[in-house]
Amino acid sequence: MNISMPKTISGWCMWLFFLCFGLAAFVPILGTIAPWLALAYAVLSLIGM
Questions:
Q1: Do the Cβ atoms of 17 and 4 come closer than 8 Å?
Q2: How many Cβ atoms sit within 10 Å of the Cβ of residue 9?
């Protein structure tokens, strides 16, 4: 099994969203960043980045 790094900016936003969302239970400031990463993922994936 081989895990590869994301190749697009939207892919990075998706991974960072899940990371921030998961860690928000321990670091509350990450809970405020997660919605912005979700929005960035949606916009960037629609325009194909």
A1: no
A2: 14
Residue 13, CA distances (Å) to 1, 8, 33, 44 in order: 23, 9, 11, 9
Return per-residue pLDDT of the chain as tens, 49 residues: 788 888 898 989 999 999 999 999 999 998 899 899 999 999 999 998 7
Count of helix runs (H) and strand runs (E) in the chain: 2, 0
| 8/15 Cα distance (integer angstroms) | 11
Burial 16-28, CB ≥16 within 10 A → b, else e: bbeebbeeeeeee
- Angular region, 26: left φ>0, alpha ψ -120 to 50, beta rest: alpha
